[in-house]
Amino acid sequence: NAGVTQTPKFRVLKTGQSMTLLCAQDMNHEYMYWYRQDPGMGLRLIHYSVGEGTTAKGEVPDGYNVSRLKKQNFLLGLESAAPSQTSVYFCASSPRPKTGGGTEAFFGQGTRLTVV
Amino acid sequence: AQTVTQSQPEMSVQEAETVTLSCTYDTSESDYYLFWYKQPPSRQMILVIRQEAYKQQNATENRFSVNFQKAAKSFSLKISDSQLGDAAMYFCAYRSAVWYEKLVFGKGMKLTVNP
Known about the structure:
- The structure holds two protein chains of two kinds.
- By secondary structure, chain A is mainly beta.
- Chain A is about 0% helix and about 50% strand.
- Chain B has strands at about 5, 10-15, 20, 25, 30-40, 45-50, 60, 65-70, 75-80, 90-95, 105, 110-115.
């Protein structure tokens, strides 16, 4: 019972490099999210998706792009990493409302990204 | 836009005692959901308890209970008989029942449990 799986768990990037974080969920959830967690800032929403092929901007989308080509996967891309993007990134998923699948979001284990 | 405020960044409690974590939120909606998540040092986000706004009865899960005051827009978490394993970051979260994609978190509160 994997739930939400994030790949990789840790990564160090040099400024200007690009990378993609992968989120995979096996619960057939419609909604998927990417958050970043910084000390004293809580979880801030980067981008989210309400279904396959759809994405939308959250609170802090600048410098990130996302794609949801398959329902089970939600990719977060950094095209040109900056030190300000050093953070812990969390992916989450949840079922469509009023489907009996609950109302909470399920989280991956996080990815610690350091940009030097 | 909805906001969630956790005004106390840190708290401590003695093992076996009771502690209450505060959370307030701002919304103009009448139907929504509230959550408390726990994040231990492992970093995993774990759901502690949930509350539906239309339910007047406060939610309870074993040693964890909430005091939901809808008019005051307050959602506090009470941990009874605190255990060392309760030491963690705790996040309060709000989810709209209408704009369901909106899932907003507070800044979190670090709870220390002293033996």
